[in-house]
């Protein structure tokens, strides 16, 4: 295998242990490059909105299908609701 090549060994959600899956998602978010990730204050502010949103169910946004913690971590993402509840960061 080539050095640095990322291989998905378990692509189907039904094959994943839920706790293990979410731990990997958290690690993925923590390891995002700071050029693509919002700062911690913005991240928590976005999640506080999602936490009380009627479109959020078990950590997923029903409007876009994303895990809200991943979507909220990315600078280029915005809330998909109309009107938008939190905005993308300017570059
Ligand atoms: S991204 Fe927007 S619509 Fe989706 S759960 Fe968060 S606040 Fe609600």
- What is the spatial order of strands in the main beta sheet? 1-2
Question: Biggest sheet, in brief?
Answer: 2 strands, antiparallel
Question: What is the number of E strands?
Answer: 2
Weakly predicted, low-confidence segments? none
Your description of this structure?
The protein has 91 residues and is mainly α. The protein has helices at 18-30, 40-51, 68-73, and strands at residues 56-57, 60-61. It has a domain at 40-91. Strands 1-2 form a two-stranded antiparallel ribbon. 10% of the residues are buried. The structure holds iron/sulfur cluster. Residues 49-50, 53, 55-56, 61, 63, 68, 71, 79-81, 85 line the site of iron/sulfur cluster.
Chain-wise SSE layout:
Elements (H helix, E strand, L loop, with lengths): L17 H13 L9 H12 L4 E2 L2 E2 L6 H6 L18
Antiparallel strand pairs: 1-2
Bound molecules: iron/sulfur cluster.
What descriptive keywords fit this protein?
single chain, 91 residues, mainly alpha, two-stranded antiparallel sheet, 3 helices, 2 strands, globular, binds iron/sulfur cluster
In brief:
This protein has 91 residues and is mostly helical. Helices cover 34% and strands 4% of the residues.
């Amino acid at each position: 295998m080539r050095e640095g090549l990322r291989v998905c060994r378990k692509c189907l959600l039904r094959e994943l242990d839920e706790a293990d899956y979410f731990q990997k998602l958290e690690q993925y978010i923590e390891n995002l490059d700071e050029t693509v990730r919002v700062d911690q204050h913005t991240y928590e502010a976005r999640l506080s909105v999602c936490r009380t949103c009627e479109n959020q169910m078990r950590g997923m946004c029903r409007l876009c299908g994303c895990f809200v913690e991943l979507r909220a971590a990315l600078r280029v993402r915005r809330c998909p609701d109309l009107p938008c509840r939190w905005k993308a960061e300017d570059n």
